[in-house]
Amino acid sequence: MGTTPDSSNKRMPEGGRRAGSEGAGRTVLIVDDDPTHVQHVREGLAPQGYRFREARDGAQALSAIREHRPDLILMDVEMPGLGGVEVCRIVKANAGEGGFGFIPVILMTARQAAGKVEGLELGADDYLVKPFDMLELSARVKSMLRLKALQDALIEKNRELDRANKELARKREELLTLSRTDPLTSLSNRRYFEERLAEEFARARRYRSPLSLVMLDIDHFKRINDTYGHPFGDEVLRAVALVSRTRLREVDLLARYGGEELIALLPETSPADALRACERVREAIESLRLDYRASDGTSQKVSCTASLGLASLPSVPLQTAEDLLRAADECLYKAKEAGRNRVRQYEE
Known about the structure:
Layout: E1 27-31, H1 35-45, E2 51-55, H2 58-68, E3 72-76, H3 84-93, E4 105-109, H4 113-121, E5 126-129, H5 134-180, H6 190-207, E6 211-218, H7 221-228, H8 230-246, E7 253-258, E8 261-267, H9 271-286, E9 290-293, E10 299-302, E11 306-313, H10 321-337, E12 343-345
Helix pairs in contact: 2-3, 7-8, 8-9
């Protein structure tokens, strides 16, 4: 139970009152079951421009903390029900950003040193024994509010640093994506494909898992460019890239290998499954109809086809990633020699 302030306590002199001090506007929660002592503390600290909240016991204190998030708690140790030490323990146990955050606690008690040690061990930031000098209380409060301000500034700086780090990570990811992406088709570029090919080839050899590689070339692409112009040729290339991507799985890697040539890597895909995937891609490209609008305002539908070469692991003759690439490339040319718009598969 809090005690009534001793009449011998010194009041802050007029010269020591500074309205608009550095802690002005800060919220101080006074927790004490003695209304006289609460009033005494309020009057002593009022010249500093603080805002006050009051609670008569520990349960009220926790409600006030949740609702108002005070900057400082002045709390009596001995109160009916939930005491100051227990409230202090709860506040400090929930000091993370997801809880109350950092709130300095000054415990007040009529007891002497034994209680002080217990309070400080439980996380109280300061300890005052009643009756106390109001000048001393004011100084302790100012000190704790400075600590609170520094802690708040540190938390905000850490948040800013965290936001900056996340933004930096996002920018790095964007740059990484750009470095791996072909700007015309938005597919992966040749450099990234070759990196992944080396990784997937090594993995397939190590675990004896199937791996298929497809090379695709748009038939008569030079004729399309010469007839309709390079901008329309770019449009055809983008359309072929898009429709090919939709016929492959998410785990498959499709890239622009150069010019009108695309290349695909199909992990964990047997020769038979890869052949079916190639046919799906070929048929989708054959079904494309693109609108070409001439300078005189006339328009027409333009179609295109593609030839595909396919090679798969495991295969005894294909001992390196270069062997796999070369085999798919040879099959691509066989598809073209056979009349184009078809798939040719590597056979040992």
